[in-house]
Amino acid sequence: MSMTRENIVEYVLDELKKAGADKASCSVAKGRKEEFNVEANKFSLLRTLFDDALAIKALCGGRKGVAVVNKLDKDSIDKAIVDCISLSKLATPDEAEDIAPKHENKSFSREIGGSDMNKLFKRSKEFLEQTLDEYPKIMLEGMTSVFGSGQATYGNSNGVLFNDSSESYGMGSSFVAKDGEKSSSFNFYGANMLDLSTPFLDLGMQRALFEESIKSLDTRTLEGKFVGKIILTPACDDMIWGTLFDCFLTDRSLIEGTSRWKDLLGTKVVDKKLTMRTVPHHPSIISGERFTGDGFESFDTDIIKDGVLESFALSLYGANKTGNKRTANTAFSNIEVVAGDISLAEMIKGVDRGILFNRFSGASPSPSGDISGVAKNSFYIEDGKVTDAISETMVSFNIVDILQDIVAISKEQIMDGGSILPWCCFDGITISGK
Q: Is 82 left (phi over 0), alpha (psi -120 to 50) or beta?
């Protein structure tokens, strides 16, 4: 059975309706990646990977069944249809379950003319050689450079149909610094791009993180416990921004009622310095979402604007369940934190005692927003100067509290193809040394 993506969608929707579905949706995705791999500072592999996926949903009397498979042959598709209907019969009815209504159907294309694997190899080889030459103490434990292409189609029984095709390059590195018996903590970095005009070493924070890993070969143990400031770098995106979505903005926390912001839409929830958006259409975001998994066209949207909560990050189901408005996209990793009015250098000068914070390792935050964990790949700031790398140091704070009075947001931003983030300074952090 060789069918186009649209043929598969049409077939699945017809079969689900015949099997008793009142409403149904189907998405088909095909991906291809051509990649080079480096291990232990040496090229190890060139390979091509294919990734097919089918996701279907059926609603039968308000009962939902879903099935996901990674094969697009007829037997796999037919089995997925049977499984989907069978699961719907076992489900509990839920009035919040639905599919997107009919609206304008669209096709999107972000193709760049195919791959230039020779240039990708040259950039990869250049990165390896520059790393060995400029940063001989850096060990590239792993590095991948890739050209990826993908095509996706979504359709539902209300007549919604979206198509999307995209192409892009990407690179990712994992590394440590080594000097004899000394070794730094593991770190990693990655970026996506539409062309190969920039050497990989000059992408985003790659060079800065190499330099900081080398400085981390010798660390300082902080003494005692104090309340100070942290400067959160763009490399540490999950500790604050990811937590906001997980604990306060998305389906689970709002449906369960644990979000501290559940009744605060349209009110000021954080310092007015903060504007945070989801921006899948921003020119610097590579392969950003064009339609959501539940069948709506995606648009950029403000989540927080000048400190005011403008939108939750809800799917159609979450919106129906809570009575709030569905967000304009589900690209919750494609965020922009709008730049501030102070340079990073000025920001550092304003810190009497604190940490330049590159990586966080800790338990999942509590629903109240309490966070505790270990600062990794991070540096002590004292009297307005970044000084020593620190050994793993405990930090704890409440995210809602520290966002009430943000010290500063930098003019500088890092754009890595997935997000647009500045450096941010927060106060009221409990820092615990030995």
A: alpha
Cα–Cα distance for residue pair 42/394, rounded to 1 Å? 36
Tokens of 85: 């209907």
Between the CA of residue 337 and those of 74, 141, 240, what are the distances in Å?
45, 31, 11
Integer CA distances (angstroms), 384 to 158, 205, 219, 224, 352, in order: 60, 22, 19, 20, 6
- pLDDT exceeds cutoff 60 at 81: yes
Q: Distances from the Cα of 429 to the Cαs of 182, 220, 355, 426, in angstroms?
A: 30, 19, 10, 8
Of 160, 164, 166, 165, which Cα lies nearest the Cα of 26?
160
pLDDT beyond 60 at 1: no
pTM of the model: 0.93
pLDDT tens figures, 107-166: 999 999 999 999 999 999 999 999 999 999 999 999 999 999 999 999 999 999 999 999
Could you give all domains of the chain from N- to C-terminal order, each with its CATH number?
5-215 (3.30.2290.10), 219-434 (no CATH)
Q: Per-residue pLDDT for 292 more than 70? A: yes
